[in-house]
Amino acid sequence: MLIATTERGHVVKRATKPAIGTMPARLQRGDAHMVVERVDEERPGSWYIQVLLRENNTYQPEHRDGMPEQHFRTLTVSQEKVLSALLGRAAAKPGWKDGFMWNNIGEQFTTGDHAASDPAGGAKQPTTPQAR
Questions:
Q1: Reading across the β-sheet that carries 2-6, which strands appear in turn?
Q2: Measuring CA to CA, which residue among 5, 39, 49 is closest to residue 23?
Q3: Per-residue model confidence as pLDDT tens digits over 47-97
Q4: What b/e string do you get for 104-118 counting C-beta neighbours within 10 Å, with b at 16 or more?
């Protein structure tokens, strides 16, 4: 099941392509973060993609593939690329990561306070250079 959530707490359970498709265009100050999470009891860990609209109007997509060590981040100015990544990830399409240079930031979630404060292994808060 896909669950889409905004920073303000708007939750769409069983999120569909149309529901997810409108969310990036609605990102704005005070509601600048969204998450699309795949919940599957048979797959351990956290499986999600999230997007932060940064102060400089760039998008910061991040995704996690199960374990904290598999947490990746990139930046883009293209809302279209963000939407393509969100929908591709939601549909489990091969190649949805193409077109980005993803950086593994998993070490931020496997040591120190982050791992201890997040027993489920999922940050679901955008990481920013200022915050980490």
A1: 11-13, 2-6, 33-38, 46-53, 59-66, 71-73, 103-104
A2: 5
A3: 999 999 999 999 999 999 999 999 999 999 999 999 999 999 999 999 999
A4: ebbebbeeeebeeee
Strands 2-6 and 11-13: antiparallel
Q: Residue count of the chain, please give it.
A: 132
Q: What is the DSSP letter of 109?
A: H
Which one-letter amino acid corresponds to residue 115? A
Strands 71-73 and 59-66, bridge-based pairing: antiparallel
21: which 2 tokens? 């498709």
pTM (2 d.p.) = 0.81
129's tokens: 């250079």
